[in-house]
Design a protein that fits this description.
- The structure holds two protein chains of two kinds.
- In chain A, about 50% of the residues lie in helices and about 10% in strands.
- Chain A has 28 helices and 14 strands.
- In chain A, the strands form five sheets. Chain A has a four-stranded mixed β-sheet with strand order 10-13-6-14, covered by helices on one side.
- In chain A, α2 runs antiparallel to α4.
- In chain B, α3 packs parallel to α5, α4 runs antiparallel to α5 and α5 packs parallel to α6.
- Chain B has nine helices and 13 strands.
- The relative contact order of chain B is 0.14.
- Classes of the chains: A alpha/beta, B alpha/beta.
- At the A-B interface, α1, α6 and α14 of A face α2, β6 and α3 of B.
């Protein structure tokens, strides 16, 4: 221990006096200052900040991480490669220390040095804390994530540099190794579904940073990272020890180390599986006993009122991808529970049976349903169902899993909205949309377009099922049209729709200038003269990351919308529309938007319709026939009831990562309330959304900017220069 | 402390080869006792540095064994290496650290306190003036001194010096020799060098290596060759002649007496001795590549 401490101390002292170390620290400070200013600038705009602002620094989206991966290798090359270059390594080995002790002390010294660099981030964290409203716990968690990532890279660098005697080569190889771990997730794309793919997915350092910068570090992340760090340390020590051996003996050492490494990896992975798939117990055969994880129950106890969330997702289905998706769903529900101010009751263990029965009554075949989430208030409930294990096969990638969940939100909204409308007393005009991105999953589900039409007919809402063209849409019925995302160039159907809207001077809200879209002469909206329309509100440049929060907020505040305030209006992407319009004396229901079997649309998801159905297609209902993505509904209500307008249906507000954005959450809960026929609650806003914007005066911004860019790096360099002068 | 004449290091059958190269050492056996200063001589590539690395445990052996103060290097490298001090050709120093920090580390990492021992080493190596200056500001001679002080800091029983004066100027060489002489009072020393004068001045024995094999172990100073170097002339002659005479079975006194009786004038009569250089060249003659 004594030797370990003194070697640690020697490493620290010689690094502190080294120009390279100080230069690296100054560079790191400068880089993170530069990116922090970018974050500061972009996050002080009009939008509420949804999450920890540090997410934008090391969530893997910007160059900060790449630069970080290029600066950090300075540390291990000093500790190992430079030691060899100066020929001080051999005498160090003669000091009576073991290779493990040497490697440990050096790596610990590296962590210490990295921690000192890391201190440069404290002022930024303070700025976030003081001028924003991100909780301290989120900031600390985000910091811990980056620090751990640095430690992992340092351990990797130690392994790479342990046998290098050229500092230049050591730097290059360490940088490459760090960058490869950043790019590693791309590797999983070429791997077939297997144990290795799952393992590699777990090693996604960017996903880890993304989670941590969002204020979450999962237990399996910790297990995996700490396990890998320990393994890398052991490997480094082995390499140092192995170096002494004659070539004839070395292969035995390599064999031994390889075996132990594989075993360790296996153990780490096992721990990961154990911790990652935490229990939500499910007894499939009896459907009676449910044990939810303590953590989840504790979360729910904080909301002891009458809204309940019941999760019924069997645990015993041993498909890893399903388990992954299941954890995402649980995460979604936990987010709902954690962010709502609406009270939540305790869980009903038998709800799954009743919900299952209900689904069956609704004509939804239950044979493919393997789980669902029930949102309940009193006697009313909203069932979000999750089915088809086939789609689970696509859930290995997070984004696909999101899509999968979204898809069923869209589907559920369609069916539930229609069902609920048929029972309400109010006069309602509505547009229900399942966003077009869900189509591929819905198409592959047993509930295809024709199945939905069939289901609507069974409920008695839809008396006739037709497929109208654009011309048949009765635009007079709408008080508002809202295009939240104008990036897409309008197709023929949309063009016709827009022209119709303009002609009728229906108030229109258009949002544009999203990222990747430059409003120039090719701007499709300019071509159609959107700016010239007096009744059109165009909101520019609301930011790229949240196409829904700003629009919904804007709608609420726009004078033209005041009569509609408290009600939800959303119009998602229009798609070609050809046919279908029901006539119902009680409820006018029009399948408005329909996705054509156009390869250009489907090609987005790489579906080749010239070939047979995808391998996970079910039956005739799954044919890629035109599919209902939106439904206009109108309920006349009691005589004299004032009609309200509802446009529902984009998947994004219900998307996990979007849900806790203030306006999205509000929108979603208004939908829930409305669907639960609790009309009074429609305009009842939930807990105010947390606004994490920075509010910095110009007076403050100046000093912060200069301290980020100049003060901290200069301070480091000057202190080094001064210490050299003094000596 | 070791007993007088105790074996400090015992190497037996040391063999180590390098992959893809004929170089290395083969079947090398020797021992060094306490108080001895032994030189390791050899041409470039003879295996001197490899021998040192094997003795310090930096390289493992293909065959043979090394005992340091009775501890087997193979079985307990860490414990055995605690009795060794090692100074490579270039003093292994960090330019940013001061000599004091180097010495302090060498002591502390081996659980030794900085006390009188520290002052003594500073005194021996004459480092007092430069103790707190960064190594990067020191001359090469001083750096070698610091390196020597480093290797002495933990009072090793055996000091391994690998060509320590190779890059020093003549003044520095002379100073460094004096340091080694002082250090030899505290530790046994194995010195690798090409400077034969240094060996003759410092060592009591030399081991000559050639192509990885120990070809001669020579006590120093080298013994007489058995011939007599005589300078004589006939009476009345003006020129003195030098000659090497083989005394045969005669004693030198009898030979001198014979010469005088033969009427020769003798002004120089000494036993003839081969120099170390002669020995070295003779031993490696025709073998240099």
């Amino acid at each position: 221990m004594n030797a370990l401490f003194h070697t640690f101390w020697r490493e620290w002292v010689r690094s502190r006096r080294s120009g390279l170390w100080n230069l690296g620290g100054a560079l790191f400070s400068l880089v993170q200052g530069f990116f922090f200013l970018l974050v500061l600038g972009s996050m002080s705009g009009a939008q509420p900040m949804p999450i920890s602002p540090l997410k934008w620094m090391w969530g893997g989206d910007i160059m900060f991480l790449f630069l970080f991966a290029l600066i950090l290798p300075v540390l291990p090359i000093k500790a190992f490669a430079e030691e060899r270059q100066l020929q001080t390594w051999d005498p160090l080995l003669c000091t009576g220390q073991s290779s493990l002790s040497l490697a440990t002390s050096k790596v610990l010294a590296l962590y210490f040095q990295w921690s000192l660099w890391f201190l440069c981030l404290i002022p930024h964290a303070l700025v976030v804390l003081i001028f924003g409203s991100t909780p301290l716990a989120h900031i600390l968690m985000a910091g811990l994530g980056l620090w751990l990532c640095g430690c992992f890279w340092l351990s990797l660098g130690s392994l790479v540099c342990s046998r290098q005697s050229s500092t230049i080569l050591a730097y290059a190889s360490t940088s490459v190794a760090c960058l490869l771990t950043l790019l590693f997730p791309f590797g999983r794309l070429i791997l077939p579904d297997s144990f290795y793919r799952i393992l590699f997915n777990s090693l996604d350092i960017r996903a880890f940073l993304d989670r941590s910068s969002d204020g979450r570090i999962l237990l399996f992340d910790l297990v995996l990272l700490l396990g890998l760090i320990a393994l890398l340390l052991w490997w480094t020590a082995c390499r140092l020890e192995n170096e002494r051996q004659a070539w004839s003996k070395r292969w035995k050492g390599l064999l031994w180390q390889g075996s132990v490494s594989l075993l360790s990896l296996f153990l780490i992975y096992s721990l990961l599986v154990i911790f990652h798939h935490r229990p939500v117990q499910w007894s499939a055969p009896t459907h009676t006993s449910h044990e939810f994880s303590k953590e989840f129950q504790e979360t729910l106890k904080n909301y002891p009122e009458d809204l309940s969330f019941t999760v019924a997702l069997p645990k015993n289905l041993s498909i890893p991808t399903y388990q992954h998706g299941r954890s995402l769903i649980l995460n979604f529900v936990e987010r709902v529970a954690a962010t709502t101010s609406t009270p939540i009751s305790t869980l009903d263990p038998d709800v799954d049976l009743r919900a299952m029965e209900r689904l069956q009554q609704e004509g939804v075949t239950s044979k493919n349903k393997i789980g669902f989430v029930v949102v309940r208030r009193g006697e009313k409930e909203l069932v979000l169902s999750y089915n088809q294990w086939i789609s689970l096969a696509t859930m290995t990638v997070d984004s696909k899993a999101h899509r999968y969940i979204r898809a069923f939100h869209g589907e559920t909204l369609l069916t539930r909205a229609v069902n609920a409308l048929s029972r309400t007393e109010r006069a309602v005009r509505g547009l229900v949309i399942a966003g077009h991105r869900e189509v591929d999953l819905l198409q592959s589900s047993p509930i295809g377009g024709s199945a939905i039409a069939e289901m609507l007919q069974q409920t008695g809402i839809l008396l006739e099922y037709r497929r109208p063209g654009v011309d048949e849409i009765d635009l007079d019925r709408y008080d508002l049209v809202f295009f939240p995302d104008s990036r897409d160039k309008p197709g023929r159907a949309r063009r016709e729709l827009i022209q119709g809207i303009f002609e009728k001077k229906i108030p229109t809200l258009l949002i544009r200038s999203a990222i990747g879209y430059a409003p120039d002469k090719d701007d499709p909206w300019k071509i159609y003269g959107v700016d010239a329309q007096p009744h059109t509100l165009v909101q520019e440049a609301y930011g790229h990351y949240d196409p829904f929060t700003a629009p919904i907020t804007s709608i609420s505040n726009h004078t033209a919308m005041r009569p509609l305030q408290g009600q939800v209006i959303l119009f998602d992407r229009c798609r070609p529309l050809k046919e279908g319009a029901p006539i119902d004396p009680r409820l006018v229901s029009s399948p408005l938007l329909r996705v054509d079997a156009n390869p250009a649309i489907w090609g987005e998801w790489e579906v080749d319709f010239s070939k047979a159905r995808r391998r996970y297609a079910y039956d005739a209902n799954d044919l890629p026939s035109p599919f209902l993505t939106a439904l206009a509904v109108e309920h006349r209500g009691k005589e004299g009831a004032i009609p309200s307008l509802l446009v529902v249906g984009s998947r994004a507000p219900f998307e996990n990562r979007m849900f806790y954005l203030g306006a999205n959450r509000r929108f979603a809960f208004q939908c829930f309330n409305w669907l639960l026929e609790d009309s009074d609650r429609i305009s009842l806003p939930p807990r105010p959304p947390s606004d994490h914007r920075f509010r910095i005066s110009t007076g403050w911004y100046g000093p912060i900017r200069w301290s980020c860019l100049l003060f901290a790096p200069l301070l480091l360099l000057i202190s080094w220069w001064w210490s050299r002068l003094r000596r | 402390m070791a007993q007088e004449g105790q074996t400090i290091i015992e190497a037996h059958g040391l063999t180590r080869s390098y992959r893809g190269s004929g170089r290395g050492i083969r079947n090398l056996s020797f021992e060094v006792k306490e108080g001895e200063t032994v030189a390791l001589l050899g041409l470039n590539g003879a295996g001197k540095s490899t021998t040192f690395k094997c003795l310090t445990g930096l390289l493992s052996l293909d065959a043979g064994h090394v005992n340091v103060c009775g501890i087997s290097l193979e079985e307990d490298r860490l414990e055995a290496s605690r009795s060794l001090g090692y100074l490579p050709e270039q003093a292994p120093l960090h330019p940013d650290l001061t000599p004091r920090e180097h010495l302090a580390f060498e002591c502390r990492v081996r659980n030794r306190k900085l006390g009188e021992q520290f002052d003594e080493i500073v005194e021996i190596c004459e480092l007092k003036e430069i103790l707190d200056r960064p190594v990067r500001e020191l001359s090469r001679g001083f750096r070698q001194r610091v390196g020597l002080a480093n290797s002495l800091a933990h009072e090793p029983r055996l000091l391994l010096l690998d060509e320590p004066t190779a890059s020093l100027d003549p003044h520095q060489v002379e100073q460094f020799r004096q340091l080694i002489a002082r250090a030899s009072k505290k530790s046994a020393i194995i010195l690798s060098t090409h400077i034969l004068a240094e060996v003759e001045a410092l060592c009591g024995r030399c081991l000559i290596l050639h192509e990885g094999e120990l070809i001669e172990s020579l006590p120093l100073p080298v013994e007489s060759s058995g011939k007599i170097e005589v300078e004589w002339r006939e009476k009345g002659e003006a020129i003195w002649r030098k000659e090497l005479l083989d005394a045969g079975k005669q004693t030198p006194e009898a030979l001198l007496s014979d010469l005088i009786q033969q009427g020769k004038e003798v002004r120089h009569f000494t036993p003839h001795t081969l120099s170390l250089e002669d020995h070295f060249l003779k031993a490696t003659q025709g073998k240099a590549k």
